Amino acid sequence: MRKTSDLIWQDAQHQVLFEILDLIGQPDSGSAVVLQLQQYAETHFTLEEQYMEMLSYPGIDAHRRAHDEFREEIATLPCADDFDVAFRQVVSTYLTEWLKRHVFGIDKELESFILESSFK
Ligand SMILES: [Fe+2]
Ligand SMILES: [Fe+2]
Q1: Domain range for 56
Q2: Measured between alpha carbons, how far is 88 from 24 in angstroms, rounded to an integer?
Q3: Tens digits of residue pLDDT in 76-85
Q4: Which pLDDT band, with edges at 50, 70 and 90, does 101 fall under?
Q5: Whether the predicted model's global pTM rises above the 0.85 cut
Q6: Is residue 4 in some structural domain?
Q7: Mean of the per-residue pLDDT values for the chain?
Q8: Quick check: helix, strand or coil at residue 43?
Q9: How many angstroms is it from 102 CA to the middle of ligand 2?
Q10: Which of 54, 69, 76, 103 has the fewest Cβ atoms surrounding its Cβ within 10 A?
């Protein structure tokens, strides 16, 4: 059940990211989904970073480094349609675990900070 104090845009974008990561592990997935992940992750990370800059968020450097780590992980994913399905499932699980730790860790701290500001 969603709390009324949740940051709606952030939650909705995380949900989309988890859905894309799930698609990557599906047997009929291909290069289009990898591209979608790269584009959507960039959109999401950029928006969080814009909020952090606007609010002079104290944890901005560590948070940006975490985003950069994920950016690097997904930038090297094979963009071929014959990208092996077993490998894609491993990648999907690994990135999903990474994202869960991020979303329930430093993203939650950022969420609280934004909610206490006047820019939510
Ligand atoms: Fe983040
Ligand atoms: Fe996030």
Answers
A1: 34-116
A2: 6
A3: 888 767 678 8
A4: very high
A5: yes
A6: no
A7: 92
A8: helix
A9: 7
A10: 76
